UniProtKB/TrEMBL annotation:
<dbReference type="InterPro" id="IPR004883">
    <property type="entry name" value="LOB"/>
</dbReference>
<protein>
    <recommendedName>
        <fullName>LOB domain-containing protein</fullName>
    </recommendedName>
</protein>
<feature type="domain" description="LOB">
    <location>
        <begin position="7"/>
        <end position="108"/>
    </location>
</feature>
<feature type="compositionally biased region" description="Low complexity">
    <location>
        <begin position="140"/>
        <end position="154"/>
    </location>
</feature>
<feature type="region of interest" description="Disordered">
    <location>
        <begin position="119"/>
        <end position="158"/>
    </location>
</feature>
<comment type="similarity">
    <text>Belongs to the LOB domain-containing protein family.</text>
</comment>
<dbReference type="Pfam" id="PF03195">
    <property type="entry name" value="LOB"/>
</dbReference>
Length: 177
């Protein structure tokens, strides 16, 4: 049991004092993790940590110790920025990823617009090639199913043979994007 056995808690060991039965550090700083208290002591000071823990209800002290240990470790690793360095770096990552997400969403919108415009055009192109090969625009055995539904498209195709070259140009433009 920490604080009640032969070996003092990590805090009392470092502070070279007797570890009392009601030692406020003992539940959170076991003797087998000396570095945990060493950093907290270096950054916050043992008496400040003692006071902070005494001011808290017992059920909140574990979380308080965890956050102090995290902050102290970060401050030891990065004496200038401490855990603010980690927070700032993560905020930059979040901003960068939000930008990437916005770009990706914009690309999705563009691709969907291109698809909704170019899929019927390609279909029409196939129909017209078929028309030129066998002279029958309605026999398209190797064509995939039409989307949107084919009647309107066929209707449109019959009246747009003259637009063939401009369709080819627009497909060329899409494929360059
Ligand atoms: Zn102790």
């Amino acid at each position: 049991m920490p604080g009640s056995g032969m070996s003092p808690c990590a805090a009392c060991k470092l502070l070279r004092r007797r570890c009392a039965k009601d030692c406020v550090f003992a539940p959170y700083f076991p003797p087998d993790e000396p570095q945990k208290f060493a950093n907290v002591h270096k950054v916050f000071g043992a008496s400040n940590v003692n006071k902070m823990l005494q001011d808290l209800p017992v059920e909140a002290r574990g979380d308080a110790v965890s956050s102090m240990v995290y902050e102290a470790d970060a401050r030891v690793r990065d004496p200038v920025y401490g855990c603010v360095g980690a927070i700032s770096s993560l905020q930059q990552q979040v901003a960068h990823l939000q930008t990437q997400l916005a770009v990706a969403n914009a690309e999705i919108v563009c691709i969907r617009m291109h698809q909704s415009q170019s899929v019927p055009n390609q279909q029409q192109h196939q129909h017209q090639q078929q028309h030129m090969e066998d002279g029958n625009p309605l026999i398209t055995s190797n064509s995939p199913p039409l989307t949107p539904s084919s009647p309107n498209l066929n209707q449109h195709m019959k009246s747009s043979v003259g637009g063939y070259e401009s369709l080819e140009i627009s497909e060329h433009l899409w494929s360059q994007n």
